[in-house]
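Anyone up for a design puzzle?
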């Protein structure tokens, strides 16, 4: 496997920045991956395949490139160790996380509820299931009232979403501090 980072100079924008691309080649077949990094053309070191400079942003860019390279080698070596076929598309999908299923928040909550229902009587009380059904209802209300949506992908969840949901419980649902803490505890268990 050969990994190459290069500056796509024919795509220079009005600011004078060009995107950095990653090329992975295996057995003569290659695929290009967009890194999401754009830099001034003069900052690219083509010999080292890195961004020139010592400022914080440059260090972050170079760390991102190193991470992408590490992910590619990680997947490649995993397939070699397990005697599995490997090609450039598998590497690309792994780096872009396309090989992982995209679950939604409501699917995750429903999965948690079904899992708990199966355990009722063994190590879970029926009231625990009711608490998770309550959090499901509150999340559904939040999504509809605040986001005008029925669901959201787990990949789209951010700390802002959690803070906004917490604020929704406080302001719109008018819950006490302890009730919010319990609801957030259940919510975080679901998304983990």
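Challenge accepted. My sequence:
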């Amino acid at each position: 496997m050969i990994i190459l980072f290069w500056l796509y100079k024919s795509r220079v924008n009005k600011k004078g920045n060009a995107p950095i691309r990653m090329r992975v080649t295996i057995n003569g077949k290659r695929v290009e991956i967009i890194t999401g990094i754009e830099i001034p053309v003069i900052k690219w070191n083509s010999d080292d395949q890195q961004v020139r400079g010592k400022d914080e942003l440059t260090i972050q860019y170079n760390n991102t490139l190193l991470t992408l390279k590490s992910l590619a080698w990680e997947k490649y070596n995993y397939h070699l160790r397990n005697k599995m076929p490997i090609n450039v598309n598998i590497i690309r999908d792994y780096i872009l996380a396309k090989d992982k299923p995209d679950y939604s928040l409501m699917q995750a909550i429903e999965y948690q509820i079904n899992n708990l229902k199966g355990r009722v009587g063994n190590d879970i009380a029926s009231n625990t299931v009711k608490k998770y059904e309550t959090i499901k209802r509150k999340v559904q209300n939040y999504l509809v009232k605040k986001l005008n949506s029925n669901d959201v992908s787990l990949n789209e969840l951010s700390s802002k979403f959690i803070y906004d949901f917490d604020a929704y419980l406080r302001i719109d649902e008018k819950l006490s501090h302890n009730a919010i803490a319990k609801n957030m505890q259940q919510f975080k268990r679901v998304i983990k």
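A detail worth pointing out: The first helix runs from residue 56 to 81.
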